[in-house]
Amino acid sequence: MITADPRVRLLELAAGQGISLSRLSALIGRNATYLQQFVRKGSPRKLEETDRRTLARFFGVAEAELGAPDEENSRDPARKQPRGGWIAIPRLPLSASAGPGAFADEEEPFGAFGVTEQWLREQGLEPQMLSAIAVTGDSMDPTLRDGDEILVDRTPRPPRDGIHVVRVDGALLVKRLETGRPGLLVLRSDNKAYDPIELPPAEVEVIGRVVWKSGRL
């Protein structure tokens, strides 16, 4: 059963995806306490249309669940389940090092990266499981270069071969993961100047699989 109160519903959706209200506030371009005040203090009284639409598309729900007037939804049936529009993927102020480890403690979005719903469907990706971060260093040249932005799919799954963002000793790294050796994960660089790293699985936290990149020419 879907809760009628948009404030309670927003809390339910955020809890279901494990995302904080401060992160969602940043996603819609507001200060970190904006949605906390909306939920806890009733200020603002209702979400602005653009904020509501962004959040509804992020969670994949109808705008009515977040307080859209009934007449607005009946006037524009597509808003009940947006299709073909743009989805905002949070951009995190992290750097996944392709060389020395880059330590990262702050994970609040500083903006959003727009992709279309059609593209997400074609790729089989869920928007709530995606984050955009930057690459630093040269160890993944020529596949990934310093300054490239990558989309990371954080959908939980067993480790498999491919390019992933991993955390080792608190450092974020982007490496080519190899899983074929029993009791070991191999973190390999595409730049042959870097030696592979071999670690037991317990020492490697696989954050997510790299599914897309962008970068300057």
In a few lines, what is going on in this structure?
The protein contains 6 helices and 10 strands. It is of the alpha+beta class and 217 residues long. The model is unreliable at 71-84 (pLDDT under 50).
Report what the structure shows.
The chain is of the alpha+beta class. The chain has 6 helices and 10 strands, in the order H-H-H-H-H-E-E-E-H-E-E-E-E-E-E-E. Strand 7 and strand 8 form a beta hairpin. The relative contact order is 0.12. About 6% of the residues have low confidence.
SSE topology:
Elements: H1 6-17, H2 21-27, H3 34-41, H4 49-59, H5 70-75, E1 86-97, E2 102-103, E3 111-116, H6 117-123, E4 130-136, E5 149-153, E6 162-168, E7 171-178, E8 185-188, E9 197-199, E10 205-214
Parallel strand pairs: 1-4
Antiparallel strand pairs: 1-3, 2-7, 4-5, 5-10, 6-7, 6-10, 7-8, 8-9
Radius of gyration: 19 Å
Oligomer: single chain
- Helices, by number, come to 6
Instruction: Tell me the span between the first and last alpha carbons.
Output: 49 Å
| Low-pLDDT windows of residues | 71-84
User: Which sheet architecture does the biggest sheet show?
Assistant: 10 strands, mixed
Please state roughly what percent of the residues sit in beta strands, choosing from under 5%, 5-15%, 15-25%, 25-35%, 35-45% or over 45%. 25-35%
Mean pLDDT: 82
Shape: elongated
Number of strands: 10
Structural class: alpha+beta
Work out the helicity level: 10-25%
Q: Give, in order, the helices and strands.
A: HHHHHEEEHEEEEEEE
